[in-house]
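Example record

Each entry pairs one chain with its bound ligand, tetrahydrodeoxyuridine.
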Amino acid sequence: MSHQKNLYNAAMAVMKNAHAPYSNYHVGAAVLADNGQTYVGTNVENAAYPEGWCAETSAIAAMVAAGAKRITEVCVVTRSDPPGTPCGGCRQRLSEFASADTPVHVTNLDGVSHTWRMDELLPGAFKLKD
Ligand code: THU
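Structure tokens for the complex follow.
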């Protein structure tokens, strides 16, 4: 079953809390975990630019802090067209907790949406097995 609509609403809501005064690029991320709960995060920038981090990273941190370990679906919302896709570092972080076939929806406020599989975003991911 797809939880895309709920995830989209959660990601859109949290995007409004982005701390992005430097880039003005607001990102909201929502991850559905295998416990049925949704965890959200937004990007958190810093005056010392490299110390900021991404929305996906925030959502993963919230999930792990709550005790969940498996991601079954992801939604990332931005205002850009086409919608922004997770950066390289976030692809690796998502991959730690997702499966090859985990859907990663990228969406904007106009409803433009594309769904990637995790292994399309990060083929040949470096994993625990390695
Ligand atoms: N950003 C994310 O939150 N997720 C991504 O996958 C790409 C980039 C944020 C980081 C920074 O706050 C802003 O977008 C511009 O790069």
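The longest helix spans residues 4-15.
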